[in-house]
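Input.
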Amino acid sequence: ALVAFLDDRRRSGVWKPSTFNGKHLGKKWGVEVDLKRRTVASPGRRPMPPELLAIAARLRDLAAEDLAAEDLAAAPGGGGGESRRAIPRAASRAVATFAPNEANAIDYRRALGMELEPHCDDRQMSSGVLVNLSLLGDCAMTYAPDKKNFDKKHNAPNRSRDRGAVDVFLPRRSLQIQSGSTRYDFSHAIRNENLLADRRVSVTFRESAAPATRTKVRGG
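Output.
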């Protein structure tokens, strides 16, 4: 149903060719983010659609259910032990209040040489949580230390040189949550050969706002 929505130009707009962070087809909704001018304008020309807001709401609901069950188990007379979880504990805490105001969809076609180039989403204009939904095709996403930021943050010059890249398998219908060090210290990418199907579609959700102080370097 989500892919049908994304492919319906009357409901979600037209897939547009782009080379931003790699060759792909894309479309976006929500606030207008200008990475060069470091501004976020609201409302955007294309508001967040109900189909995507429903995903974010469902994610918050799952997190709330898990955290409530955890509190109940920890309370006196609650029985203790590990409660049955819909999503991992760290994920529940990360997305409990996640309310995205921006989303973009990307359509990758393996036969056309499309891929996602290594990058870190802007560290000032997007919040500390990124949520990415994989549709249609499996892939492997490559994480690698972002040397400049990793070394500066951890006060460990050259430490990142000793840390290798890691490929993370993302099956279709999986939901990936980036937070903490993964969000800020590592770049992510999808090489063309790591697109494991002819077509992969993804939707990335963000909470975006203009930085409190003016910054010049995208992603810094």
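The chain has a mean pLDDT of 86.
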